[in-house]
């Protein structure tokens, strides 16, 4: 039997055993609630060549706009300190419209950790909203700085 792939919570795995346990999904037409049945209709035919791509520690760039009470409260320093501790490169900058702009590059899992910190902010801040745009990794930032 060829190995079969499945994913669960961002983890991909291969299974050489009976695949029926891997592809048990609720059928949309099922009238019985919470009853899971074998649903392998989306699988390719046995013997079909498949390409499995596992992206672990994918590097990306995030363009982030933080709004709320985020200027005059040490938000850029807070961002820089946390980014350096996590291992993220980029910069933080105050904008004329009262928002803070953050450009951060690194592994996606580390960037997710930074975004969680940005939602917390320093004590005197109050984050109302964070807009995030994912961009291609450039590698142009060698450290995390503050821009003026």
Name the features.
alpha+beta; 2 domains; 2 helices; 9 strands; disordered N terminus; Alpha-Beta Plaits; 148 residues; two-stranded antiparallel ribbon; five-stranded mixed beta sheet; elongated
Query: Roughly how many Å is the radius of gyration?
Result: 22 Å
How far do the termini sit from each other?
60 Å
* Total count of strands: 9
- What does the largest sheet look like? 5 strands, mixed
Helicity, as a percent range: 10-25%
For the record, the CATH architecture of the largest domain stands as 2-Layer Sandwich
Unreliable spans are 1-18
Succession of helices and strands: EEEEEHEEHEE
Notes on the structure:
There is one protein chain. By secondary structure, this protein is of the alpha+beta class. It folds into 2 domains: 54 residues, no CATH class; 89 residues, Alpha-Beta Plaits (2-Layer Sandwich). It is 17% helix and 36% strand. The protein contains 2 helices and 9 strands, in the order βββββαββαββ. Strands 8-5-7-6-9 form a 5-stranded mixed β-sheet, covered by helices on one side. A two-stranded antiparallel ribbon has the order 1-2. Strand 1 and strand 2 form a beta hairpin. Helix 1 runs antiparallel to helix 2. The protein is elongated. The chain starts with a strand and ends with a strand. The N terminus is likely disordered.
